[in-house]
Amino acid sequence: MDGRVLVLNQNYEPLHICDWQRAVALVYTGKAHAVENNGKLLRSPSTEIRLPSVVRLRDYISRPLPTVKLSRRAILARDDHRCQYCGSHERDLTIDHVIPRERGGPHTWENLVTSCRRCNNKKGSRTPREAGMKLFSRPRRPRFIPYLNFATFRAALRNEAWRDYLEPFAPQLLDDSF
Asked: Which of 37, 49, 82, 176 is deepest in the core (most CB within 10 A)?
């Protein structure tokens, strides 16, 4: 995530992830101040600026809370790119309906899981119980971190410089089942 900057609202709530150019412009114009720097310098003939890795806006931005959108990317992020039947972290994962659609299974957060191709083929159009398979965790709608989409938030948690600002929101987002 080099060159990317976490933007916090005035109350330290994560708002956005932007590139370093936008973050420097926010700091330079006085709309934000740098909370954390990444150690690199931006030099011009007349000034020297430390590149920020986290900036905080000076004014509070009020935005309506978005809802978590059901998507392949969000399901993969929720399940940590892991097959929910065998636990493998393969690159070629599919999305499986726990209760098959042909049996009336809905296309919802609670009925979709990540599956490797082998387990998806083994399960087929049966329920996990009928196929003799067990889920690692019960699929649920994730609780949402305001303003950052679910997959972006999960990826951002891996950045050491941002972790202190994101972890207070992680328990709300990641339940005890993940």
From this structure: 82
